[in-house]
Amino acid sequence: MSKTSVTMSNAQELAVPARAASRRQIGLKNTSRGYGMVAIVLHWLVALCVIGLFALGVWMTELTYYDDWYKRGPDLHKSIGILLLFAMLARVVWRATNIRPEHEPGTGALQRRIADSVHILLYILLFAMMISGYLISTADGKPIHVFGLFPVPATISGIPNQEDIAGEVHWYLALIVISLASLHALAALKHHFIDRDRTLIKMLGIRSHRTTNPDSKENM
Question: What confidence tens digit (pLDDT) does each residue in 119-133 have?
Fold first, then answer.
């Protein structure tokens, strides 16, 4: 057997465990290289709820008293909103008790600060939006019934114009959240298709050997 054949054979043997490692299932917890399954599920669950609630909220503004969904729509909106609150609380706890994956090589210091700031701002805005929604729903002192399974009692009610003021705040917060979430999504696509790094892939739960574009600017 020639030296070339031996070298190729050794390379193939070394490649087998590497491929097997890349196919390993994602664990529950985060690692320095990627997000765990819990973080991924919570991220996409929150994203779907926010988009769905925004679409439902906009659609509800067109309903009239005689529409079948005039009461059903708000009840659904409130119930999902409460579940979103629980998901966000779980996400905060999980984030605080897990390590965060490292930024991709080639991501400049300014980009890292902006990304971290946007994440924190989204968390703050989401909680503010849910609190304002709660104040709308409980302005009359009645609890929120979550899919008929359990009630969430009214703790603050009777404030003059509470429903109107909270409703105005809720609407503008929703617009800001959707705008920031859209920019967040565009940034993820930019990382994937232009920078060609693993930023989006990590949150999709896909194992990949993709490396950062060598032309990326370190000081952006």
Answer: 999 999 999 999 999
